[in-house]
Amino acid sequence: MKCKYWFMSFGKYIKTGNITPDYYFSIWAKIISSEKSLELLLCEPLVEKDVTFQLNLLGNLNAKQWEEYFETTMSDSCEGNTESFHGIFEKIDSIHCKRLLYRNPNLYQYLRMLVVFDKQDSVPSFLFQLENNLRTIHRWEAYANAKLREFSPKEEREKSPSGRNVNRLTDILKDGLFIADVSERDDFIEYLMIREVIVDEKEMEIVRQYIRISVPILIH
């Protein structure tokens, strides 16, 4: 019943023009537990009607629920169900897919494993795009992990801006932005904010302003 309410509310919100489907379902997904997300994915037919909601729910699953999801959905035909799972991603564009992946670390990690272990003789074009997105985020992840070994986000956040590690932000401005292509730098900055390499909105705005001054912005 509650799932029907989410979709009915979605219709009302979308009419206002002030909210996108991606944003609406991402809000709902964040307040649903891993256990409830698994229940909805396995038992609620309405969830299948919206790919964005499906992917956000998949991003909620912890290791235990992710294993249970695959054991349940792939019990009859591993190959067929893997193709069905891939089909979810085939329905969304590459940019949207990448943003869902870096905003949902669990989903990103599980898909990396799935792509590695599920090599086929004939790979669909969308799967090449998915692998490219995974490689891109893996590159961002390596950079973020290296920076997080150099400082504590919690300690940095508690300091005044003038007392923070100057090298951290300088490295992001000088070197980190070259990790991402020009057209991807806004997404890269958001990823660094999610990973807490950029520790607050003020720092995020400094980096955004630097980008606007130093390189042309490609609207996407």
Write a structural description:
By secondary structure, the protein is mainly alpha-helical. It folds into two domains: 2-149, no CATH class; 152-220, no CATH class. The protein is 70% helix and 0% strand. It contains 13 helices and no strands. Helix 2 packs parallel to helix 4 (51-60). It is elongated, with a radius of gyration of 19 Å. The model is unreliable at 216-220 (pLDDT under 50).
Distance between the termini: 37 Å
Residues in helix, %: over 70%
- What's the story with the biggest beta sheet? none
**Beta-strand content estimate:** under 5%
Poorly predicted spans: 216-220
Summarize this entry quickly.
With 220 residues, the chain is mainly α. Helices cover 70% and strands 0% of the residues.
Key attributes of the depicted protein:
220 residues, mainly alpha, 2 domains, 70% helix, elongated, disordered C terminus
